[in-house]
Write a sequence for this structure.
């Protein structure tokens, strides 16, 4: 009888030990791609899961480069939560290198997305009474240049100054697929420099791309300047990245003409490098829209800047956690419901406060174009010299356009960002007399002692900073 009690006690203790391992020391491991998602996980799960974040407070997800330590985090994760919409251009490669085998959660699933072309159209023309003037200027600048007429067989042309040697041109999958399974490319030497080199060679490039004859090239094969043929590049569907070796025998200027924008095939690496893995930038390119290392795709990825969207993020995270640990469902649901109430209350308060600003004064200048969703929800018009990514470069024309808009519309304030170099905005402020209205947090929380240490505080800080400056 004593032996039976002994064995029963051992069995109970062993069962308790197993439960402790699952829900104690070995809690569910959740990794979030950046700090805003990490905060949402904390609000819903509290200390019931082991939560980690790849891009921390004040970190810029656009330029993040995962380390081996980050790969270890992802490898050990049961759940990986990302924003999606091509925001984390490096995530697929990180998943592959870490051999991640857990559940992937895309927080933006089901949100009311803004199409990129929709947003660009709004920014350029939606409220700009000088649209006709801009269009006329554009026509004056480019109407007589054949290479700007948009009817070319190539979408992009770039001129590079290259030394003799070997280079690597890469094409990467974005969100699991190549932008196209194949593409024609022409490489031509030029005796001219910059844009003149492109103009000199574009007629020949046009003819070569349109011709039926092309030299087939596959992953790892060599490309050389060739006046007689285009290359037909085939992308290996079994690889995340297809590479071609570019062989240059003599130092000089070389022009490249491609059927698709090279940026459409960029994930987390620049498309053209030397053998030492240093980026090679063009000395001129058409269209000259600034270089976007992070091509975001069809939709604006900055969905969290809408509280309405953030509530959908919360539901997606809640669902994933409940499915992963059903035993904790009541805790997750209680916390998520309480958090949603706070989001609803904040949204109502901020929408009421924004009414203090007359509609004709709701124009906001920021460093990069990350606030489209906030603008849509709160009736604000955001303009930025940079594009969707902090890695995109503002051209002189972009800066001149912003300065002109500030002067014409008498915009009182411009805003620096926590993850962008403030010098461009400060320069614009000096040239226009606008004041720097404060610092906004477009895509990362502040440090714990800062004004945007949680998502709720971030949204409250951003909107109230804008209201204060525009009053």
């Amino acid at each position: 009888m004593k032996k039976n009690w002994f064995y029963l006690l051992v069995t109970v203790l062993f069962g308790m030990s197993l439960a402790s391992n699952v829900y104690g020391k070995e809690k569910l491991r959740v990794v979030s791609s950046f700090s805003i998602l990490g905060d949402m996980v904390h609000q819903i799960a509290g200390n019931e899961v082991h939560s980690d974040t790849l891009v921390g407070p004040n970190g810029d997800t656009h330029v993040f480069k995962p380390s081996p330590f980050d790969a270890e985090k992802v490898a050990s994760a049961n759940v990986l939560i990302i924003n999606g919409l091509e925001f984390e251009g490096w995530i697929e490669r990180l998943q592959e290198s870490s051999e991640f085998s857990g559940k992937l959660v895309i927080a933006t699933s089901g949100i009311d997305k803004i199409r990129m072309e929709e947003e660009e159209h709004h920014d350029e023309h939606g409220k700009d009474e000088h649209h006709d003037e801009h269009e006329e200027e554009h026509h004056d600048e480019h109407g007589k240049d054949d290479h700007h007429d948009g009817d070319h067989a190539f979408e992009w042309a770039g001129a590079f100054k290259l030394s003799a040697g070997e280079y690597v041109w890469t094409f990467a999958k974005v969100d699991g697929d190549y932008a196209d399974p194949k593409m024609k490319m022409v490489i031509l030497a030029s005796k001219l420099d910059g844009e003149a080199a492109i103009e000199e060679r574009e007629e020949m490039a046009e003819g070569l791309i349109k011709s039926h004859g092309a030299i087939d090239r596959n992953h790892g094969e060599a490309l050389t300047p060739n006046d007689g043929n285009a290359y037909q590049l085939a992308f290996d569907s079994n690889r995340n990245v297809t590479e071609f070796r570019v062989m240059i025998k003599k130092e000089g200027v070389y022009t490249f003409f491609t059927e698709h924008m090279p940026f459409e095939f960029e994930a987390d690496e620049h498309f053209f490098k030397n053998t030492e893995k240093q980026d090679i930038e063009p000395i001129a390119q058409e269209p000259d829209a600034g270089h976007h290392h992070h091509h975001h795709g069809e939709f604006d990825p900055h969905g969290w800047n809408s509280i309405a969207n953030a509530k959908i993020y919360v539901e997606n995270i809640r669902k994933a956690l409940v499915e992963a640990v059903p035993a904790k469902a009541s805790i997750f649901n209680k916390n998520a419901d309480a958090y949603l109430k706070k989001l609803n209350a904040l949204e109502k308060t901020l929408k009421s406060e924004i009414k203090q600003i007359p509609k004709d004064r709701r124009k906001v200048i920021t460093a990069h174009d990350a606030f489209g969703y906030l603008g849509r929800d709160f009736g604000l018009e955001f303009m930025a010299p940079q594009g969707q990514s902090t890695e995109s470069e503002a051209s002189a024309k972009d800066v001149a356009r912003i300065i002109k808009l500030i002067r014409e519309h008498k915009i009182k304030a411009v805003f620096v960002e926590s993850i962008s170099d403030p010098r461009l905005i400060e320069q614009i402020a000096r040239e226009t007399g606008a004041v720097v209205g404060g610092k906004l947090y477009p895509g990362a929380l502040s440090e714990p002692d800062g004004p945007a240490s949680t998502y709720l505080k971030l949204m409250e800080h951003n909107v109230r900073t804008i209201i204060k400056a525009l009053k």
